[in-house]
Amino acid sequence: QVQLVESGGGLVQAGDSLRLSCAASGGTFSNYAMGWFRQAPGKERDFVAAISWGGKSTYYTDSVRGRFTISRDNAKNTVYLQMNSLKPEDTAVYYCAGNLAYIRTPLPENVGYWGQGTQVTVSS
Fold first, then answer.
1. DSSP 3-state assignment of 110?
2. Looking at the predicted structure, is the pLDDT value of residue 69 above 90?
3. Residue 57 neighbours by CB under 8 Å, 6+ apart
4. Contact predicate 118/8, CB 8 Å
5. What is the pLDDT of residue 111?
6. Which of 102, 112, 119, 124 has the fewest CB atoms within 10 Å, counting from its CB?
7. Average pLDDT, rounded, for the chain
8. Share of the chain above pLDDT 90, in %
9. What is the average pLDDT across 6-10?
């Protein structure tokens, strides 16, 4: 059973940066496309970013492209989300997603494994 554990969330001001980490265990991490989703209160869980199993391909939702960067370290079984120039509208619970069926705007039902989520709050 694959387990994903996120860390790095917190409360920041608009314009600040945060880096989220997701540590994987219990599976062959390097075989999986990985990603991040987020869910704001009262809203659906939305795709944020994804990275291919080898790290050569990445994809982002339009609202974060140019501000967020997804990366992975297969030797450490960890995927990262560097978030710069944060905006209040980025406030949400961020979920690590593992074993994506594809990386170009996957849907939640196309995710094999989920982390427990980490809260990111951006104040104005």
1. helix
2. yes
3. 51, 103
4. yes
5. 95
6. 124
7. 96
8. 90
9. 97
Confidence (pLDDT) at 50: 98
**CA–CA dist 60, 70 (Å, integer):** 9
Determine the residue type at 66.
G
Q: Is 13 exposed, middle or buried (0-12, 13-18, 19+ CB in 10 A)?
A: exposed
Query: pLDDT confidence of 27, banded at 50, 70, 90?
Result: confident
Residues 61-69: contacts with CB under 8 Å, at least 24 apart: 61/105, 63/89, 64/90
Query: Cα angle vertex 73, ends 22, 90, to 5°?
Result: 40
Strands 118-123 and 3-7: unpaired
* Partners of 98 in beta bridges: 34, 113
104 vs 34, 74, 80, 93, CA distance in Å? 11, 21, 18, 21
Residue for token pair 């094999």: 112
Closest CA to 45 of 122, 121, 115: 115
Beta bridge partners, 20, equal: 81
- Nearest-angstrom CA–CA distance, 96 and 107: 13
Which residue in this structure is represented by tokens 């710069």? 84
